[in-house]
Amino acid sequence: PCLGLQRTGVIHGDVNEFNILVDSTKPDEVSGILDFNDVVYAPYVADLGVCLAYIMLVVKGNNPAAGVVPLIRGYESKRPLNADERSCLLYWSLCRLAQSICCGYDAYSRDPENEYLMVSCRPAVTVLKKLVDIGKDKLCTLWANAHQSNET
Question: What's the CA gap between 74 and 147, in Å, rounded?
Answer without folding.
Answer: 8
